[in-house]
Amino acid sequence: MQISVSKALLGTAAALSFVASAAVADDWRAWNIHSDGHPNTAAMDLFAELVAEKTGGEVNVEVFHGGVLGTQPDAIEQVQLGAIDVGNFNLGPLGSIVNEANLVSLPFIFRDVDHMFRVLDGPAGEQISTAMGDADLLPIAWFDAGARSFYNNSGPINTPDDVAGMKIRVMNNDLFTGMVNAMGGNGTPIAFSEVYQSLSTGVVDGAENNLPSFQSVGHYEVAGFYSMSEHLIIPECVCVNTAKFEALSADMQAAVVAAAEEAAAFQRELWNEQTQASREAVEAAGVKINQIADKTPFQEAMVPVYENYLAANPDMAELVALAQATE
User: Fold this and answer.
1) In this structure, are residues 16 and 9 in contact, taking their beta carbons and an 8 Å threshold?
2) What are the strands of the beta sheet with 138-143, ordered from one edge?
3) From CA 88, how far away is CA 46, in angstroms rounded?
4) Is residue 94 packed enough to be buried (19+ CB in 10 Å), middle (13-18) or exposed (0-12)?
5) Quick one: pLDDT band at residue 24, thresholds 50, 70, 90?
6) 5 and 140 Cβ atoms separated by less than 8 Å
7) Where are the alpha helices (DSSP H) in the chain?
8) Residue 16: pLDDT band by 50, 70, 90 thresholds?
9) What is the pLDDT of residue 169?
10) With contact defined as beta carbons under 8 Å apart, do 119 and 323 qualify?
11) CATH number of 148-232+287-325: 3.40.190.170, 3.40.50.720, 3.30.530.20, 3.40.1050.10?
12) What percent of the chain has pLDDT over 70?
């Protein structure tokens, strides 16, 4: 599986080819919030190994797992400042820093996970990468973080009409409450720690998350139907401080990017395995999982959500159009 990196990202390589390659070893620190056993932890460890191998030891990466270097907001700021060199970040929180990153938070903007990666590997992804690089958060690879889908204890969701009248727990974001409301439901932000109890007592009728989270937090015990709406597909990046990356020679830049691409391919494989294992576990527990044959009605229901968003963010219109036009 080949992962394309933004042409804009590698565009600096030729301009910097005069930089001496015989530099002293460069030691980088990398941030990762996940702990042992998570696909991203294994992938970031592989990234460090591959960087050392491919650069001949000219760049060495030490990965600090479990968020020991700070919270994600702290780590994002530290990468921007250059105090941390690399971070594995979810794109959701980056939207407050890089407006273009908000594309991935639009409901049903992607048809599925493969489509999301095609968008990121295409012209829309180039715009996002360039904007992130300008903010000193240069993405050199994209990780899979799954697709969020609806689950409830009433029945399968196959069309927007099936959401009508349902009270669905969503994250605290106007886009997400608007998504449910546009289908005739009631988008309800409540703390994640309260979702299990709220489902079991009927405070909410349903919620939404990816399959590994649905299983790991036990929501499958109180929600017997999981519908593959895949309405939110928010990836993660391996982001490097832009100045740190641009200080490398062209050869070293290419080596670091190649290491990140290989690590991302590995991470995606591990994520797929984890998702399949979670699916098998919840199905064995009695959960009914249904595919949604046609997501077009859901996308059509999002028209007012997009209209409101683009009215407030007209500069995002071209990027949204690029993503929607990607096959």
Assistant:
1) no
2) 59-64, 26-31, 86-90, 236-240, 138-143
3) 13
4) buried
5) low
6) yes
7) 7-15, 39-54, 72-81, 91-94, 113-120, 123-134, 174-182, 195-201, 211-216, 242-246, 250-284, 296-301, 303-312, 317-325
8) very low
9) 97
10) yes
11) 3.40.190.170
12) 93
- CATH 3.40.190.170 domain position(s) in the chain: 7-145+233-276, 148-232+287-325
Q: Residues near 19 by Cβ (< 8 Å), separated by ≥ 6?
A: 247, 248, 249, 250
Determine the topology of domain 7-145+233-276 in CATH. Answer: D-Maltodextrin-Binding Protein; domain 2 (3.40.190)
Looking at this protein, which amino acid is placed at residue 175?
L
pLDDT band at 25 (very low <50, low <70, confident <90, very high): confident
- The model carries a pTM of 0.88
Q: Please, are residues 216 and 282 in contact by the beta-carbon 8 Å criterion?
A: no
Find out whether 47 and 87 touch, Cβ atoms under 8 Å: no
Read off the pLDDT of each residue in 50-76 and give the average, rounded to a whole number.
96
Beta-bridge partners for 288: 225
Q: Vertex 145, ends 59 and 66: CA angle to 5°?
A: 55
Contact between 29 and 60 under an 8 Å Cβ cutoff? The reply is no
CB neighbour burial string for 19-46, b if at least 16 within 10 angstroms, e if fewer: eeeeeeebebbbbbbbeeebbbbbbbbb
